[in-house]
Design a protein that fits this description.
Length: 106
C-alpha cells in the first residue's frame, strides 16, 4: 500500500510522489534531498518533519539521523552499511535493528 507524499520544493512548487517511488531521503544542512524515480528534489524542511510525514509508510524507514531508505529497493547490506541504488549508506548506531529487519529471511 502506497502513501502519497507532497514535497515542497525549494523553487516554490509542490511535487506529489508515492512513497514507493522514493529511493532515499537525506538531510543536507537546512535542506532535505529526496531521491526519487521521478528525479531529485530539494526541500527546505527538517528530518523531524519528514519522519512525521512518513510515519504511515511501510517501505520508507529511517536508518540514521540523516537518512531514510526505501526498504523495497535495498540491494544488499554489508556490516553496518546498506547499498541502495548504487549508494552506500552507513546505518546509525541507534538504528542497528533495521539491519536485523533487512536480513531477516522469513
Amino acid at each position: 500500500s502506497s502513501n502519497q507524499l507532497t514535497i515542497k520544493v525549494t523553487d516554490g512548487s509542490y511535487i506529489k510522489v508515492i512513497d514507493s517511488d522514493v529511493i532515499q531521503i537525506s538531510a543536507s544542512g537546512n535542506y532535505v534531498e529526496y531521491l526519487t524515480k521521478k528525479g531529485n528534489f530539494l526541500s527546505r524542511t527538517t528530518m523531524k518533519e519528514v519522519a512525521h510525514q512518513l510515519k504511515r509508510s511501510q517501505n520508507l524507514k529511517r536508518v540514521s539521523r540523516s537518512h531514510f531508505l526505501n526498504f523495497d529497493l535495498i540491494e544488499k547490506s554489508v556490516q553496518n552499511k546498506i547499498i541502495i541504488d548504487g549508494d552506500e549508506i552507513a546505518v546509525g548506531s541507534n538504528y542497528k535493528s533495521v539491519l536485523d529487519e533487512i536480513r531477516s529471511t522469513d
